[in-house]
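Incident log, structure service

09:12 report received: a user says their structure output differs between two submissions of the same chain.
09:20 pulled the input from the user's history:
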Amino acid sequence: MLELLYTSTKALSNYPSFMAYIKTWDALVAFINLEVHKVFRDGSEAYLGAWSYSLSLGNRVLGRHFYFENAVNAWCYAADEITGQFHNDLILNPNWKVPLAPGSHLDDMAGLFLKTGNPITIHDLGTGVLAGAVSTGFYVHNLAYAGSGRVMAFKHDTGDVALVDYQGKKVLWKSKVRPCRWSAYDCLHDLVITVESDKLVRIYLLNPVPATLTAPTFTPAAQRFQGCVVKTRLRGAHGEVCPGYWVRWAITGSPPKGALVKLASKTDENGYAENFYYGPALGEEIGAETLKVSVKV
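09:34 re-ran on a clean worker, output below:
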């Protein structure tokens, strides 16, 4: 589960049927009540114009959005980054109409179109040829730009979220947020943004909340008169690795047997914390059950 950082103090006027983070605004564009709105993190809204039934919205590379023509196979129109309105004279896919799927991602710099669903399908923007697919293990409702060649994938009713490398065609990590009505990704500050059924804006850090530590492992097996490396791994509730957290080490038993070099160590990029253990000079061999590990957040 990602760490919830902030909940807005104001409720939106209604649920958004689409929402995207716009980097040049450092705010959100949203379809609300058949209107286009600029939405701020505290829940404030600014009216930008009427929403046409003939248009749907998608995400565009570099923290922008675009408009779909509301048809089974659609033209994609560039959106103005000041007004939020569409340019009907600037078609981003002039050679091939894309399949309409709100929340899809258009990377006109790489010439790719990513369609929401299960799996995510990747199409050549110029020809429509299928260039690959990535399965997240859940149905994807929204694909938001998260850096060069990457998107954040969301399933709203369950809160599933995954970071997808669509150039390498792989999932880099998966986690969860609370179930929501729509989602966005702040690519400037690396934040997940959602709106739930209470119409409040919520912001999440990418840091997963620590949940479990593995039992310490000794390499080689700990015993008398011998030193060894001891490791533990910190994960979130859904198996996410948790880097950058301090783990405190303590030897249990009466009397304690052996000694540790460190009282605390920080987890690495793969969630592992490491220490060095010296076996006791006297007594029996010592195993993992003699160590107790706790987390310092």
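09:41 both user submissions now match this output. Likely a transient worker issue. Closing.
09:42 reviewer note: The chain has a mean pLDDT of 90. The CA atoms of residues 255 and 290 lie 11 Å apart.
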